[in-house]
Amino acid sequence: MALTTSLLLDTAILLTIIIFLLYKFYTRNNNFFKKRAVKHIPPTPFLGNFVEVLFLNKHSAVWIKDLYDKFGDVPYFGVYIFDVPYLVIKSPEIIKNIVVKDFQHFVDRTMASARHDAVQTNMMFFQKGEEWKATRSKMSPVFTSGKLKAMCPMLVANSFRLVEYIKSRHQKIDLEDMSSKYVAEGIFRVFFGMEAHLMDETNKEFAELLIKTQHPSLKIAISIFCYLYQHRFVDWFKLTFGDPKLRSYCVEAFREALKARENSTFRVNDLIDIINDLKKTKEFKDTFEFE
């Protein structure tokens, strides 16, 4: 049904209404900190205080550090990322209460939880509330001080491989590439119980996938951004966190490592051995399912 006799005028009225409604929605929290007498910078409509980061003028870590310095000697201050208010804590005493004394009230992370993704749904990094607590209680035996100490020799050996890698280079070294390989080698050795073969450059497939994480496509970058800052879009568009190919590669490597070590007498006390031990307990079986 037309509002006027002019299509152009009808379109202009409709667009004005849509823009007004969007404006009201994205500015609904703009007085959140003002009402609570919390120091903050007045937000820009739609973008909050996130303009410099959004337009790639400043890294998010530098942005929050600059705000930290700007507010001086206050126990906390407020920032807006788009339409969402965030309280940034500066006081060591308050931080201690949050992470220790009152931690039961602050277990949820700000990362989006993707209910449509079976892999991410079962990862502690994405879980919230009671699900996170249940998973944490089951996985805690994996990360005792004794088991973590047993993993140290693997990381030390990985460091020696890094030294040899640097010595073998007779030209300039790409530090970003080298660091990524070093971290990935350590993760694969400790968590998957296998060599990634990145520093000896024999695992071309994994190396190529790793390079993509350093320079993600626009689609993956937007997906990660939504997981961090625009949670509503994660489920709307069924987004996945990171490169699906890299995740599939790691999941398959993990499953293969579990199966290979399950009936083996060979032990290195890495995460694979620990999880295989836990799989034999009823409590662990009731919580986790391995295909």
From TrEMBL:
Any GO MF annotation of the entry: monooxygenase activity
Protein name: Cytochrome P450
Keyword annotations of the record: Endoplasmic reticulum, Heme, Iron, Membrane, Metal-binding, Microsome, Monooxygenase, Oxidoreductase, Transmembrane, Transmembrane helix
Cofactor: heme
Keyword flag Protein transport: no
Pfam families reported for this sequence: p450 (PF00067)
Residues that span the membrane, as ranges: 6-26
Compartments it resides in: Endoplasmic reticulum membrane; Microsome membrane
One GO location term (cellular component): endoplasmic reticulum membrane
Organism: Acanthoscelides obtectus (Bean weevil)
Membrane topology, as annotated: Peripheral membrane protein
Domain of life assignment: Eukaryota
Family to which the UniProt record says this protein belongs: Belongs to the cytochrome P450 family.
